[in-house]
Design a protein that fits this description.
The structure is a single chain. The chain has 4 helices and no strands. Helix 3 crosses helix 4.
């Protein structure tokens, strides 16, 4: 079964063959138990990227996500959770301009923020 929502299609016989083999063998790299090598590569790359930004030690961490929308929403969840207790989520205030990507407004609704009826 292929899922092709917002994914580029295979453009050559070689990439088509790769897609077919992936579908046949059902290879998933979304968990350590299913793909420890992919998990190790992700971990090493995240730590390396952190060191390029000046971060070191055990506090460097993160994950690769499927795209900008998921990255934005994950960052908003991290920011919300670092500043608000769960019982105070409704008291949070978000400011962004009309130039902000639409994924941010959608992500905010998903994580529990509502549009101000007066704004």
């Amino acid at each position: 079964m292929m899922f092709s929502s917002f994914l580029a299609s295979a453009v050559s016989p070689y990439s088509l063959a790769g897609s077919i083999l992936t579908d046949i063998y059902n290879i998933h790299a979304d968990g350590w138990e299913l793909s420890p090598c992919a998990g190790l590569i992700e971990e090493k790359l995240v730590k390396w990227m952190g060191s390029c930004a000046g971060y070191t030690g055990d506090k460097v961490g993160g994950v690769f996500l499927s795209g900008g929308s998921m990255a934005n929403m994950s960052a908003m969840v991290a920011a919300r959770d670092s500043r608000l207790a769960p019982e105070d989520f409704s008291k949070g205030t978000i400011y962004f301009s009309d130039q902000t990507h639409s994924s941010n407004e959608k992500g905010l609704r998903i994580i529990g923020f509502r549009k101000d009826p007066d704004g």
